[in-house]
């Protein structure tokens, strides 16, 4: 039981990052459009890339194969991407749901999982 609890502690950063995402996607008031085209898509990509790294790294570090882990992490990210867009449409007055935001979310999630896998593989090869 203690090993299970200590593994759950590794996911605290992912949970905290999810809280940051909730704030940024639902509670932070949307401002005027940026002079940088598609800056919001870059933000969505980055949020989900970091979250996917934080979700995938603990299991990868413990030896779980990427092919087993990827469907779980990407599934969780897909659920949150859809839920966050639905929440922006229904729960906020200054934001709207956009399909391209969800596409950017999932591109970031896939990139994050791959970065975590390759980063841990490189670390292990170096040591």
Q: How would you describe this protein?
A:
This protein has 127 residues and is an all-alpha fold. It has one domain (2-126). The chain has five helices and no strands. It has helices at 2-9, 12-27, 39-61, 66-91, 99-126. The model has no long low-confidence stretch (mean pLDDT 90).
**Biggest sheet: strands, sense, closure?**
none
- Low-confidence stretches are none
Strand content: under 5%
Order of helices and strands: HHHHH
Q: How many domain units?
A: 1
Structural class: mainly alpha
Helices and strands, with pairings:
Blueprint: H1 2-9, H2 12-27, H3 39-61, H4 66-91, H5 99-126
Helix pairs in contact: 2-3, 3-4, 3-5, 4-5
Question: Top keywords for this entry?
Answer:
single chain, 127 residues, mainly alpha, 0% strand, elongated
Short overview:
The protein has 127 residues and is an all-alpha fold. The protein contains 5 helices and no strands. The longest helix is centred in the C-terminal third of the chain and has 28 residues, at 99-126.
